[in-house]
Design brief:
The protein is mostly helical and 136 residues long. Helices cover 65% and strands 0% of the residues.
């Protein structure tokens, strides 16, 4: 198969892969899960500061912002596994109960569909299972 007959997406993916290898050969084996392990959760105070409560004291708290983020990620089809898991872990750290997380994802089934909701729930269960905390 000639180079021009390839799928444009395959060509773009190969070009990005070659570029990553040229920058740093170690990037050839990059995994988002490894990146996720660098900072699995932020302290609640850091989240409050980063998500705007330090500047906008009457604004949404970190827990609410993270539940909204989780809703958005679910609506996008829950395709960003790392982002969903990290958002769930951060939401729990910010005080969200498991039931609130499940309800947030479940509500998005109306907008994103059952497959997206199911995938988000699977990822959330992975993230919440890491804590081993069934009481929330």
């Amino acid at each position: 198969m000639s180079e021009t007959a390839k799928n444009p997406f395959e060509q773009m993916l190969k070009q990005a892969h070659d570029m990553a290898k040229a920058f740093n050969p170690g990037l050839e084996n990059f995994s988002p899960k490894g990146f996720e392990a660098l900072w699995p959760t932020m302290p609640k105070e850091v989240m409050e500061m980063m998500f705007g409560n330090a500047v906008n004291t009457d604004g949404l708290d970190a827990k609410t912002r993270l539940l909204l983020t989780l809703a958005g990620l679910t609506c996008q089809g829950a395709q960003a596994d790392t982002a969903v898991r990290q958002t769930v872990r951060h939401a729990v750290e910010a005080g969200a109960k498991k039931q609130e997380i499940v309800e947030t994802i479940g509500q998005m089934s109306v907008f994103a569909g059952i497959p997206a909701m199911t995938r988000a729930l699977e990822l959330a269960q992975e993230a919440m299972g890491e804590k081993g905390d069934d009481d929330q």
